[in-house]
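Inputs:
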Amino acid sequence: MDQFIKEFSGKVRATLQNLPIEEIAKAMNILQACYERDGRIYVFGNGGSLAIATHWVADINKTIFSHDLSEHTRRFQAVRLPSTESEITAWANDVGYDMVFAGPLQNYIQDSDVVIAISSSGNSINIIKAVELAKKYNVPVIGLSGFDGGKLNELADAKILVNTEKGEYEVVESAHGTIMHLITKYFKNYFDRLIERRTARS
Amino acid sequence: MASFYTRHPGRVLSTAIDKYVYVVVNRTPLIDKVSARYSVSETVSHPSELQHTRIKAALLDAGITSGIELASFASLPAKAGLGSSSTFSVALVKALAAYQGKKIDKGQAAEAAARLEIELLKESMGKQGQYTAAFGGFNVFQFNADHSVDVKPVLVDYKVRLGLEDHIMIFFTGLIRDAAGVLKEQEASAEKNFEVMKAMAHSVAKAQAALLAADFEKLGSILNEGWTMKKSLVSTISNSTVDSLYLAGLQAGAWGGKMLGAGSGGCVMFLAPIEKKEAIRHAVAVAAQAATLKDFKEIPVRFIQSGVEVLHDSDYERTTLS
Protein backbone atom coordinates (compact mmCIF):
# COMPACT_ATOMS: atom_id res chain seq x y z
CA MET A 1 0.00 0.00 0.00
CA ASP A 2 2.64 2.55 1.02
CA GLN A 3 4.51 1.92 -2.23
CA PHE A 4 1.43 2.88 -4.21
CA ILE A 5 0.85 5.98 -2.13
CA LYS A 6 4.44 7.08 -2.58
CA GLU A 7 4.36 6.41 -6.29
CA PHE A 8 1.18 8.35 -6.94
CA SER A 9 2.11 11.31 -4.80
CA GLY A 10 5.55 11.28 -6.42
CA LYS A 11 3.97 11.64 -9.85
CA VAL A 12 1.78 14.51 -8.72
CA ARG A 13 4.77 16.18 -7.08
CA ALA A 14 6.77 15.85 -10.31
CA THR A 15 4.06 17.65 -12.30
CA LEU A 16 3.88 20.41 -9.70
CA GLN A 17 7.64 20.89 -9.88
CA ASN A 18 7.39 21.42 -13.62
CA LEU A 19 4.41 23.74 -13.86
CA PRO A 20 4.43 26.02 -16.94
CA ILE A 21 5.03 29.12 -14.84
CA GLU A 22 5.03 31.65 -17.65
CA GLU A 23 1.79 30.32 -19.11
CA ILE A 24 0.06 30.44 -15.72
CA ALA A 25 1.27 34.04 -15.33
CA LYS A 26 -0.17 34.83 -18.76
CA ALA A 27 -3.48 33.29 -17.70
CA MET A 28 -3.59 35.49 -14.59
CA ASN A 29 -2.94 38.60 -16.69
CA ILE A 30 -5.76 37.58 -19.02
CA LEU A 31 -8.07 37.25 -16.01
CA GLN A 32 -6.87 40.59 -14.61
CA ALA A 33 -7.78 42.26 -17.92
CA CYS A 34 -11.17 40.55 -17.87
CA TYR A 35 -11.85 41.82 -14.35
CA GLU A 36 -10.89 45.40 -15.29
CA ARG A 37 -13.39 45.51 -18.13
CA ASP A 38 -16.08 43.59 -16.22
CA GLY A 39 -16.08 40.73 -18.70
CA ARG A 40 -17.24 37.19 -18.06
CA ILE A 41 -15.23 34.00 -17.71
CA TYR A 42 -16.70 30.79 -19.11
CA VAL A 43 -15.27 27.60 -17.62
CA PHE A 44 -15.99 24.10 -18.76
CA GLY A 45 -14.72 20.54 -19.01
CA ASN A 46 -15.98 16.95 -19.06
CA GLY A 47 -16.53 14.81 -15.94
CA GLY A 48 -13.91 15.55 -13.28
CA SER A 49 -12.79 18.61 -15.24
CA LEU A 50 -16.32 19.97 -15.04
CA ALA A 51 -16.20 19.46 -11.28
CA ILE A 52 -12.94 21.45 -11.15
CA ALA A 53 -14.63 24.18 -13.20
CA THR A 54 -17.61 24.33 -10.84
CA HIS A 55 -15.44 24.39 -7.73
CA TRP A 56 -13.33 27.22 -9.19
CA VAL A 57 -16.42 29.29 -10.07
CA ALA A 58 -17.44 29.32 -6.41
CA ASP A 59 -13.94 30.32 -5.33
CA ILE A 60 -13.33 33.06 -7.87
CA ASN A 61 -16.82 34.55 -7.64
CA LYS A 62 -17.12 34.54 -3.88
CA THR A 63 -14.29 33.08 -1.79
CA ILE A 64 -11.57 35.44 -3.02
CA PHE A 65 -13.61 38.43 -1.85
CA SER A 66 -14.48 36.76 1.45
CA HIS A 67 -12.37 39.02 3.60
CA ASP A 68 -14.52 41.97 2.70
CA LEU A 69 -17.47 41.05 0.54
CA SER A 70 -19.26 44.32 1.16
CA GLU A 71 -16.26 46.37 -0.07
CA HIS A 72 -15.92 44.44 -3.30
CA THR A 73 -19.01 45.26 -5.29
CA ARG A 74 -17.15 44.69 -8.56
CA ARG A 75 -16.51 40.97 -8.62
CA PHE A 76 -15.50 38.35 -11.10
CA GLN A 77 -18.27 36.95 -13.28
CA ALA A 78 -17.28 33.34 -13.80
CA VAL A 79 -19.90 31.07 -15.34
CA ARG A 80 -19.68 27.29 -15.52
CA LEU A 81 -20.97 26.22 -18.93
CA PRO A 82 -23.56 24.96 -19.48
CA SER A 83 -25.00 26.63 -16.43
CA THR A 84 -28.05 24.36 -16.27
CA GLU A 85 -28.55 20.59 -16.58
CA SER A 86 -31.45 21.34 -18.91
CA GLU A 87 -29.04 22.91 -21.41
CA ILE A 88 -26.58 20.02 -21.24
CA THR A 89 -29.31 17.49 -21.97
CA ALA A 90 -31.08 19.67 -24.54
CA TRP A 91 -27.90 20.20 -26.57
CA ALA A 92 -26.72 16.60 -26.14
CA ASN A 93 -30.07 15.06 -26.99
CA ASP A 94 -31.17 17.39 -29.78
CA VAL A 95 -27.94 18.40 -31.46
CA GLY A 96 -25.19 16.15 -30.19
CA TYR A 97 -22.72 15.88 -27.37
CA ASP A 98 -20.13 17.76 -29.44
CA MET A 99 -22.12 20.94 -28.94
CA VAL A 100 -22.77 20.93 -25.17
CA PHE A 101 -20.19 23.70 -24.58
CA ALA A 102 -20.02 25.55 -27.90
CA GLY A 103 -23.82 25.72 -28.07
CA PRO A 104 -24.39 27.57 -24.78
CA LEU A 105 -21.16 29.59 -25.22
CA GLN A 106 -22.56 31.11 -28.40
CA ASN A 107 -25.46 32.55 -26.34
CA TYR A 108 -23.13 34.58 -24.15
CA ILE A 109 -19.84 35.28 -25.87
CA GLN A 110 -18.73 38.92 -26.12
CA ASP A 111 -15.50 40.74 -26.91
CA SER A 112 -14.66 41.33 -23.26
CA ASP A 113 -14.92 37.68 -22.18
CA VAL A 114 -12.45 34.88 -21.45
CA VAL A 115 -12.74 31.13 -21.87
CA ILE A 116 -11.12 28.54 -19.61
CA ALA A 117 -11.21 25.07 -21.13
CA ILE A 118 -10.16 22.08 -19.04
CA SER A 119 -9.38 18.76 -20.73
CA SER A 120 -6.81 16.17 -19.66
CA SER A 121 -6.40 14.78 -23.18
CA GLY A 122 -6.77 18.20 -24.75
CA ASN A 123 -8.65 16.50 -27.56
CA SER A 124 -12.29 16.22 -26.41
CA ILE A 125 -14.28 17.28 -29.44
CA ASN A 126 -16.88 19.24 -27.47
CA ILE A 127 -14.08 21.22 -25.78
CA ILE A 128 -12.28 21.92 -29.06
CA LYS A 129 -15.50 23.10 -30.71
CA ALA A 130 -16.06 25.64 -27.95
CA VAL A 131 -12.43 26.77 -28.09
CA GLU A 132 -12.68 27.24 -31.85
CA LEU A 133 -15.77 29.38 -31.35
CA ALA A 134 -13.87 31.54 -28.83
CA LYS A 135 -10.97 31.92 -31.27
CA LYS A 136 -13.39 33.05 -33.98
CA TYR A 137 -14.47 35.84 -31.61
CA ASN A 138 -10.85 36.69 -30.67
CA VAL A 139 -11.72 35.87 -27.07
CA PRO A 140 -8.62 34.73 -25.14
CA VAL A 141 -8.54 31.06 -24.24
CA ILE A 142 -6.85 29.65 -21.14
CA GLY A 143 -6.34 25.96 -21.81
CA LEU A 144 -5.63 23.46 -19.02
CA SER A 145 -4.55 20.19 -20.56
CA GLY A 146 -2.59 17.06 -19.65
CA PHE A 147 -0.75 14.20 -21.41
CA ASP A 148 0.79 15.78 -24.53
CA GLY A 149 -1.61 18.75 -24.52
CA GLY A 150 -3.53 17.73 -27.61
CA LYS A 151 -5.30 20.23 -29.78
CA LEU A 152 -6.34 22.39 -26.82
CA ASN A 153 -2.73 23.21 -26.03
CA GLU A 154 -2.13 24.20 -29.65
CA LEU A 155 -5.14 26.51 -29.77
CA ALA A 156 -4.97 28.11 -26.31
CA ASP A 157 -3.50 31.58 -25.70
CA ALA A 158 -2.33 30.56 -22.23
CA LYS A 159 -1.07 27.01 -22.71
CA ILE A 160 -1.21 25.41 -19.26
CA LEU A 161 -0.03 21.90 -20.03
CA VAL A 162 0.50 19.36 -17.24
CA ASN A 163 2.77 17.07 -19.17
CA THR A 164 2.31 13.36 -18.23
CA GLU A 165 2.07 9.96 -19.82
CA LYS A 166 -1.18 9.29 -21.66
CA GLY A 167 -4.03 8.18 -19.44
CA GLU A 168 -2.79 9.71 -16.17
CA TYR A 169 -6.13 11.41 -15.54
CA GLU A 170 -5.86 11.41 -11.76
CA VAL A 171 -2.42 13.02 -11.78
CA VAL A 172 -3.44 15.64 -14.35
CA GLU A 173 -6.68 16.53 -12.59
CA SER A 174 -4.87 16.84 -9.24
CA ALA A 175 -2.44 19.30 -10.82
CA HIS A 176 -5.28 21.17 -12.53
CA GLY A 177 -6.99 21.53 -9.16
CA THR A 178 -3.79 22.98 -7.70
CA ILE A 179 -3.35 25.43 -10.60
CA MET A 180 -6.92 26.67 -10.26
CA HIS A 181 -6.36 27.13 -6.52
CA LEU A 182 -3.12 28.98 -7.24
CA ILE A 183 -5.06 31.40 -9.44
CA THR A 184 -7.71 31.79 -6.74
CA LYS A 185 -5.10 32.54 -4.09
CA TYR A 186 -3.27 35.07 -6.27
CA PHE A 187 -6.41 37.15 -6.75
CA LYS A 188 -7.42 36.73 -3.12
CA ASN A 189 -4.08 38.25 -2.08
CA TYR A 190 -4.44 40.97 -4.71
CA PHE A 191 -7.87 42.07 -3.52
CA ASP A 192 -6.76 41.95 0.10
CA ARG A 193 -3.83 44.22 -0.86
CA LEU A 194 -6.17 46.68 -2.57
CA ILE A 195 -8.26 46.95 0.58
CA GLU A 196 -5.13 47.44 2.70
CA ARG A 197 -3.93 50.17 0.39
CA ARG A 198 -7.26 51.95 0.47
CA THR A 199 -7.34 51.75 4.26
CA ALA A 200 -3.76 53.09 4.51
CA ARG A 201 -4.67 56.10 2.37
CA SER A 202 -7.83 57.06 4.17
CA MET B 1 10.10 54.63 -36.58
CA ALA B 2 10.55 52.72 -39.84
CA SER B 3 13.68 54.72 -40.69
CA PHE B 4 15.27 53.01 -37.68
CA TYR B 5 13.70 49.58 -37.44
CA THR B 6 14.33 48.71 -41.07
CA ARG B 7 18.04 48.88 -40.16
CA HIS B 8 18.04 47.56 -36.58
CA PRO B 9 15.24 45.99 -34.50
CA GLY B 10 13.43 48.70 -32.55
CA ARG B 11 12.34 47.84 -29.04
CA VAL B 12 10.12 49.50 -26.46
CA LEU B 13 8.85 48.55 -23.03
CA SER B 14 5.41 50.02 -22.59
CA THR B 15 2.28 49.80 -20.50
CA ALA B 16 -1.31 50.95 -20.68
CA ILE B 17 -2.91 53.28 -18.12
CA ASP B 18 -6.45 53.71 -16.89
CA LYS B 19 -7.31 56.56 -19.27
CA TYR B 20 -9.72 55.65 -21.99
CA VAL B 21 -11.01 56.66 -25.40
CA TYR B 22 -14.49 55.57 -26.42
CA VAL B 23 -15.70 55.65 -30.01
CA VAL B 24 -19.39 55.23 -30.77
CA VAL B 25 -20.46 54.32 -34.28
CA ASN B 26 -24.14 54.49 -35.12
CA ARG B 27 -25.85 53.33 -38.27
CA THR B 28 -28.29 56.00 -39.54
CA PRO B 29 -30.01 54.38 -42.53
CA LEU B 30 -32.66 57.09 -42.69
CA ILE B 31 -30.19 60.00 -42.62
CA ASP B 32 -28.19 60.28 -45.81
CA LYS B 33 -25.28 62.07 -44.13
CA VAL B 34 -22.01 61.54 -42.33
CA SER B 35 -21.77 62.96 -38.82
CA ALA B 36 -18.68 63.20 -36.64
CA ARG B 37 -19.02 64.46 -33.08
CA TYR B 38 -15.98 65.27 -30.98
CA SER B 39 -15.02 68.68 -29.55
CA VAL B 40 -17.05 70.02 -32.48
CA SER B 41 -19.97 68.52 -34.34
CA GLU B 42 -19.80 68.04 -38.08
CA THR B 43 -22.51 66.84 -40.44
CA VAL B 44 -21.59 66.53 -44.11
CA SER B 45 -22.85 64.81 -47.25
CA HIS B 46 -19.67 62.87 -47.94
CA PRO B 47 -16.72 61.88 -45.69
CA SER B 48 -14.31 63.77 -47.95
CA GLU B 49 -15.84 67.01 -46.60
CA LEU B 50 -15.01 66.20 -42.95
CA GLN B 51 -12.55 68.42 -41.07
CA HIS B 52 -11.51 65.59 -38.72
CA THR B 53 -8.62 64.08 -40.68
CA ARG B 54 -8.58 60.67 -39.01
CA ILE B 55 -12.29 59.97 -39.21
CA LYS B 56 -12.25 61.25 -42.79
CA ALA B 57 -9.35 59.02 -43.85
CA ALA B 58 -10.72 55.98 -42.01
CA LEU B 59 -14.19 56.29 -43.57
CA LEU B 60 -12.83 56.85 -47.06
CA ASP B 61 -10.51 53.89 -46.66
CA ALA B 62 -13.32 51.66 -45.40
CA GLY B 63 -15.53 52.77 -48.28
CA ILE B 64 -18.23 54.07 -45.96
CA THR B 65 -19.83 57.10 -47.58
CA SER B 66 -23.15 57.75 -45.89
CA GLY B 67 -25.66 56.83 -43.20
CA ILE B 68 -23.20 56.85 -40.33
CA GLU B 69 -22.71 58.87 -37.16
CA LEU B 70 -19.53 58.73 -35.07
CA ALA B 71 -18.74 60.22 -31.69
CA SER B 72 -15.71 60.07 -29.46
CA PHE B 73 -15.16 60.51 -25.74
CA ALA B 74 -11.81 60.69 -23.99
CA SER B 75 -10.54 60.98 -20.42
CA LEU B 76 -7.52 63.10 -21.44
CA PRO B 77 -7.00 66.10 -23.67
CA ALA B 78 -5.49 65.45 -27.11
CA LYS B 79 -1.74 65.93 -27.52
CA ALA B 80 -1.00 65.54 -23.82
CA GLY B 81 1.73 63.06 -24.68
CA LEU B 82 -0.01 60.04 -23.23
CA GLY B 83 -0.91 58.45 -26.54
CA SER B 84 -4.51 59.59 -26.75
CA SER B 85 -4.42 60.14 -30.49
CA SER B 86 -3.10 56.66 -31.32
CA THR B 87 -5.55 55.23 -28.81
CA PHE B 88 -8.32 57.05 -30.63
CA SER B 89 -7.14 55.53 -33.93
CA VAL B 90 -7.14 52.03 -32.47
CA ALA B 91 -10.65 52.45 -31.08
CA LEU B 92 -11.82 53.96 -34.37
CA VAL B 93 -10.54 51.14 -36.60
CA LYS B 94 -11.84 48.49 -34.20
CA ALA B 95 -15.27 50.13 -34.10
CA LEU B 96 -15.45 50.54 -37.87
CA ALA B 97 -14.41 46.90 -38.37
CA ALA B 98 -17.19 45.79 -36.00
CA TYR B 99 -19.61 48.09 -37.87
CA GLN B 100 -18.69 46.24 -41.06
CA GLY B 101 -19.16 42.86 -39.38
CA LYS B 102 -15.44 42.10 -39.14
CA LYS B 103 -13.81 40.71 -36.03
CA ILE B 104 -10.23 41.91 -35.85
CA ASP B 105 -7.80 40.90 -33.13
CA LYS B 106 -5.47 43.16 -31.16
CA GLY B 107 -2.58 42.88 -33.60
CA GLN B 108 -4.82 43.65 -36.55
CA ALA B 109 -6.32 46.65 -34.74
CA ALA B 110 -2.82 47.99 -33.95
CA GLU B 111 -1.66 47.53 -37.55
CA ALA B 112 -4.81 49.07 -39.01
CA ALA B 113 -4.42 52.11 -36.73
CA ALA B 114 -0.73 52.42 -37.60
CA ARG B 115 -1.58 52.20 -41.30
CA LEU B 116 -4.20 54.92 -40.86
CA GLU B 117 -1.77 57.29 -39.17
CA ILE B 118 1.48 56.52 -40.97
CA GLU B 119 0.43 55.51 -44.48
CA LEU B 120 -2.87 57.26 -45.03
CA LEU B 121 -2.22 60.41 -43.01
CA LYS B 122 1.55 60.48 -43.64
CA GLU B 123 2.38 61.19 -40.01
CA SER B 124 6.00 60.71 -38.94
CA MET B 125 5.71 58.27 -36.08
CA GLY B 126 6.39 54.77 -34.83
CA LYS B 127 3.84 52.10 -34.01
CA GLN B 128 4.37 51.72 -30.26
CA GLY B 129 1.39 53.89 -29.30
CA GLN B 130 -1.05 51.86 -31.36
CA TYR B 131 0.34 48.56 -30.07
CA THR B 132 0.24 49.75 -26.46
CA ALA B 133 -3.39 50.81 -26.74
CA ALA B 134 -4.48 47.69 -28.62
CA PHE B 135 -2.81 45.13 -26.35
CA GLY B 136 -2.94 46.71 -22.88
CA GLY B 137 -0.69 45.59 -20.04
CA PHE B 138 3.09 45.55 -19.82
CA ASN B 139 4.73 44.45 -23.06
CA VAL B 140 7.99 44.60 -24.93
CA PHE B 141 7.31 45.33 -28.57
CA GLN B 142 9.99 44.56 -31.08
CA PHE B 143 9.70 46.24 -34.48
CA ASN B 144 11.40 44.19 -37.18
CA ALA B 145 12.88 45.15 -40.54
CA ASP B 146 10.11 43.29 -42.41
CA HIS B 147 7.59 45.56 -40.58
CA SER B 148 6.36 42.69 -38.41
CA VAL B 149 6.04 43.26 -34.67
CA ASP B 150 6.82 40.77 -31.90
CA VAL B 151 4.67 41.24 -28.81
CA LYS B 152 6.21 39.83 -25.65
CA PRO B 153 4.15 40.30 -22.49
CA VAL B 154 6.18 41.25 -19.42
CA LEU B 155 4.60 39.13 -16.73
CA VAL B 156 4.60 41.42 -13.72
CA ASP B 157 2.49 40.40 -10.76
CA TYR B 158 0.16 42.67 -8.81
CA LYS B 159 2.85 43.52 -6.25
CA VAL B 160 5.12 44.99 -8.90
CA ARG B 161 2.22 46.68 -10.65
CA LEU B 162 0.89 48.31 -7.49
CA GLY B 163 4.46 49.11 -6.40
CA LEU B 164 5.10 50.96 -9.63
CA GLU B 165 1.85 52.87 -9.17
CA ASP B 166 3.08 53.90 -5.72
CA HIS B 167 6.37 55.21 -7.11
CA ILE B 168 5.29 56.93 -10.30
CA MET B 169 4.24 60.56 -10.72
CA ILE B 170 2.96 62.12 -13.92
CA PHE B 171 2.40 65.85 -14.44
CA PHE B 172 0.77 67.41 -17.47
CA THR B 173 2.69 70.56 -18.37
CA GLY B 174 -0.35 72.03 -20.07
CA LEU B 175 1.81 72.62 -23.12
CA ILE B 176 0.33 71.13 -26.25
CA ARG B 177 2.97 69.26 -28.13
CA ASP B 178 3.85 69.42 -31.75
CA ALA B 179 4.75 65.74 -31.95
CA ALA B 180 4.74 65.80 -35.73
CA GLY B 181 7.42 68.50 -35.90
CA VAL B 182 9.65 66.79 -33.37
CA LEU B 183 9.26 63.41 -35.03
CA LYS B 184 9.97 64.87 -38.47
CA GLU B 185 13.20 66.35 -37.19
CA GLN B 186 14.01 63.04 -35.49
CA GLU B 187 13.39 61.17 -38.73
CA ALA B 188 15.42 63.66 -40.77
CA SER B 189 18.40 63.22 -38.49
CA ALA B 190 17.98 59.44 -38.30
CA GLU B 191 21.38 58.81 -39.85
CA LYS B 192 23.23 60.93 -37.33
CA ASN B 193 21.27 59.46 -34.43
CA PHE B 194 21.40 55.82 -35.42
CA GLU B 195 23.88 54.81 -32.72
CA VAL B 196 22.00 56.67 -29.99
CA MET B 197 18.75 55.02 -30.98
CA LYS B 198 20.44 51.64 -31.03
CA ALA B 199 21.61 52.22 -27.46
CA MET B 200 18.05 53.18 -26.48
CA ALA B 201 16.67 49.98 -28.05
CA HIS B 202 19.26 48.00 -26.08
CA SER B 203 18.30 49.62 -22.77
CA VAL B 204 14.90 47.86 -22.94
CA ALA B 205 16.30 44.57 -21.60
CA LYS B 206 17.81 46.38 -18.59
CA ALA B 207 14.57 48.24 -17.95
CA GLN B 208 12.57 45.04 -18.13
CA ALA B 209 14.88 43.34 -15.63
CA ALA B 210 14.60 46.30 -13.24
CA LEU B 211 10.81 46.30 -13.55
CA LEU B 212 10.50 42.56 -12.88
CA ALA B 213 12.77 42.95 -9.84
CA ALA B 214 10.61 45.88 -8.63
CA ASP B 215 13.82 47.93 -8.55
CA PHE B 216 12.16 51.26 -9.25
CA GLU B 217 15.27 53.23 -8.36
CA LYS B 218 17.21 51.43 -11.10
CA LEU B 219 14.30 51.85 -13.48
CA GLY B 220 14.31 55.57 -12.71
CA SER B 221 17.98 55.91 -13.52
CA ILE B 222 17.54 53.95 -16.78
CA LEU B 223 14.71 56.31 -17.72
CA ASN B 224 16.87 59.29 -16.92
CA GLU B 225 19.68 57.97 -19.14
CA GLY B 226 17.17 57.31 -21.91
CA TRP B 227 15.69 60.78 -21.65
CA THR B 228 19.15 62.35 -21.69
CA MET B 229 19.94 60.34 -24.84
CA LYS B 230 16.62 61.28 -26.43
CA LYS B 231 17.26 64.97 -25.79
CA SER B 232 20.50 64.67 -27.74
CA LEU B 233 18.52 63.44 -30.76
CA VAL B 234 16.47 66.48 -31.55
CA SER B 235 16.87 70.11 -30.57
CA THR B 236 13.10 70.74 -30.33
CA ILE B 237 12.36 67.73 -28.13
CA SER B 238 12.82 69.75 -24.99
CA ASN B 239 12.75 73.40 -24.04
CA SER B 240 13.66 75.43 -20.98
CA THR B 241 10.18 75.09 -19.43
CA VAL B 242 10.17 71.33 -19.74
CA ASP B 243 13.74 71.18 -18.46
CA SER B 244 12.90 73.33 -15.44
CA LEU B 245 10.06 70.99 -14.41
CA TYR B 246 12.17 67.93 -14.88
CA LEU B 247 15.08 69.38 -12.93
CA ALA B 248 12.78 70.51 -10.12
CA GLY B 249 11.55 66.93 -9.73
CA LEU B 250 15.05 65.48 -9.71
CA GLN B 251 16.29 68.05 -7.21
CA ALA B 252 13.38 67.26 -4.92
CA GLY B 253 14.44 63.63 -4.81
CA ALA B 254 13.09 61.78 -7.85
CA TRP B 255 15.21 58.85 -9.01
CA GLY B 256 14.69 59.70 -12.65
CA GLY B 257 12.06 60.04 -15.31
CA LYS B 258 11.34 61.35 -18.75
CA MET B 259 9.00 63.42 -20.82
CA LEU B 260 6.12 61.39 -22.22
CA GLY B 261 5.33 61.41 -25.88
CA ALA B 262 7.52 62.99 -28.50
CA GLY B 263 8.54 65.71 -26.07
CA SER B 264 8.60 69.54 -26.18
CA GLY B 265 5.62 69.65 -23.83
CA GLY B 266 3.11 67.00 -22.91
CA CYS B 267 3.77 65.26 -19.61
CA VAL B 268 6.73 64.85 -17.33
CA MET B 269 6.99 61.56 -15.49
CA PHE B 270 9.08 60.65 -12.45
CA LEU B 271 9.94 57.55 -10.51
CA ALA B 272 10.48 58.50 -6.91
CA PRO B 273 10.73 57.21 -3.35
CA ILE B 274 7.30 57.33 -1.72
CA GLU B 275 8.50 59.62 1.08
CA LYS B 276 9.76 62.19 -1.46
CA LYS B 277 6.55 62.39 -3.47
CA GLU B 278 5.04 65.27 -1.52
CA ALA B 279 8.23 67.35 -1.89
CA ILE B 280 8.40 66.58 -5.62
CA ARG B 281 4.74 67.50 -6.08
CA HIS B 282 5.44 70.84 -4.44
CA ALA B 283 8.70 71.55 -6.30
CA VAL B 284 7.25 70.75 -9.72
CA ALA B 285 4.16 72.86 -9.01
CA VAL B 286 6.39 75.80 -8.04
CA ALA B 287 8.39 75.40 -11.27
CA ALA B 288 5.15 75.23 -13.24
CA GLN B 289 3.91 78.40 -11.58
CA ALA B 290 7.20 80.16 -12.36
CA ALA B 291 6.73 79.19 -16.01
CA THR B 292 3.05 80.33 -15.84
CA LEU B 293 1.70 76.99 -16.99
CA LYS B 294 -2.04 77.54 -16.61
CA ASP B 295 -3.17 74.01 -17.39
CA PHE B 296 -0.50 72.26 -15.34
CA LYS B 297 -1.88 69.38 -13.30
CA GLU B 298 -0.91 66.04 -11.83
CA ILE B 299 -2.41 63.03 -13.59
CA PRO B 300 -2.86 60.06 -11.28
CA VAL B 301 -2.50 56.76 -13.13
CA ARG B 302 -3.13 53.11 -12.55
CA PHE B 303 -1.83 50.42 -14.86
CA ILE B 304 -4.27 48.25 -16.69
CA GLN B 305 -3.99 44.90 -18.34
CA SER B 306 -6.86 45.31 -20.80
CA GLY B 307 -6.63 46.62 -24.34
CA VAL B 308 -9.02 47.58 -27.13
CA GLU B 309 -12.39 45.88 -27.24
CA VAL B 310 -15.94 46.23 -28.48
CA LEU B 311 -17.99 47.11 -25.40
CA HIS B 312 -21.35 46.78 -27.02
CA ASP B 313 -22.61 45.66 -30.38
CA SER B 314 -26.24 46.51 -30.90
CA ASP B 315 -26.34 45.71 -34.58
CA TYR B 316 -29.38 43.49 -34.20
CA GLU B 317 -30.04 42.97 -37.91
CA ARG B 318 -26.53 41.89 -38.75
CA THR B 319 -25.84 39.74 -35.70
CA THR B 320 -29.12 37.87 -36.00
CA LEU B 321 -28.54 37.14 -39.67
CA SER B 322 -24.84 36.28 -39.64
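The two ends of chain B are 40 Å apart (CA to CA). Flag for discussion at group meeting.
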